[in-house]
């Protein structure tokens, strides 16, 4: 009797296993196709950033950054979450790299935490050797596993000391010099293995959200202080970051590039914009929005100065001026241009009257009105994040716009991806079946392919955001952008491969 029962149990187990196998085969087969044409030498990869995944915020001599401070202020982040532990990547780095390798990820974009290398941000206070050791270990491990490394030097985690002592990006003199030293240290220690350097990630966001009263670290711009207010601070912060970029590039080109044979660039974010109505004013408003967003940083690094439309529209001497020497330093200061692109929206010419000059915000200065909706209809399906609506053709238009205006030799899509709706609140098994993300990636990559293969845009690389779920800034862990799921409820933050990772892994195979 007992034997018969065991036999029966075994048969049931075998049947269940077979059913699971069949269902996984069906679900793999039903994933969108991966046959999207790209040039043979196109590079596919995945991206992350230090504060969003590392954790270990007080370990091994790391100093505090503005995001440590900001996330610890009650009420600033969803559910008061912080990056203290994040994905604990600091301790799980080898495991994560093994996972990347198993997925066939050949290019990895990571960022280096400035306060891990220079705890106060300043060279004169000493280099944290343990920080150097950590990144050496990580980079060696990546290289040993056949993964090329692209490093972002500034992904928003400014050392708190620089903020407190000098006002951070509001002070170009000290902070620019400090960034130049930090970059120099990174090139010297890691440049033999890092072949792509990105000076800044989305300086627009640091400037407008961090210094324009938008609840983002360092949280400046609300009310006025001796340094300024939301009317001029974003422009000051942007100006410093541009100068810091130019100085870091000069250090790289003068001291390292010839030996190390790497490339250096900057990553800028932009949506693409479509006119709210079919009027000349609205078309012009779209162009203005692109120039105020992308052009604010791209014009200086390609042409040496801000777009004319910004000089005309930002009244009252709030847009700082570059000296002739600074213009020369900036002009041509990129080997590649990085684009972070997720969504598109509608833009119209501003109809409401402008406030007095000294009370105008960055948005006022653009004289545009934006929306994700037209006549109550969204531009595309909404993701989890409030700002993200799926509109694949936008990436092709954006890439063409960049090619036309700047004619760059190399464009890297340094981020593109999506947070699938409801992924944080559904059972893990359901979250892993992330068809929304698979379709998003399929459709956006098809448009990138069209830009490259049909329009002749010089896109050379694409990094999906993100390798794994992570701390999504003010949204904490509620928005999941990963192709790998991180179970924040399990004590060791177990990783699970989502269907999108399997799909991406198939797509990149021919290019590995
Ligand atoms: C851009 C940022 O670089 C990254 O840190 C962020 O997580 C993603 N966009 C998604 O919002």
What does this molecule look like?
The chain is an alpha/beta fold. It has one domain: Glycosidases (TIM Barrel, Alpha-Beta Barrel), CATH 3.20.20. The protein is 44% helix and 14% strand. The chain has 18 helices and 15 strands. The strands form four sheets. It has an eight-stranded parallel β-barrel, surrounded by six helices. Strand 14 and strand 15 (495-497) form a beta hairpin. Helix 15 runs parallel beside helix 17 and helix 17 (435-454) runs parallel beside helix 18 (499-508). The longest helix has 28 residues, at 2-29. The termini are far apart. Mean pLDDT is 94; it is low at 16-29. The structure holds 1-deoxynojirimycin. Belongs to the glycosyl hydrolase 1 family. GO terms for molecular function: beta-glucosidase activity. Keywords: Glycosidase, Hydrolase, Signal.
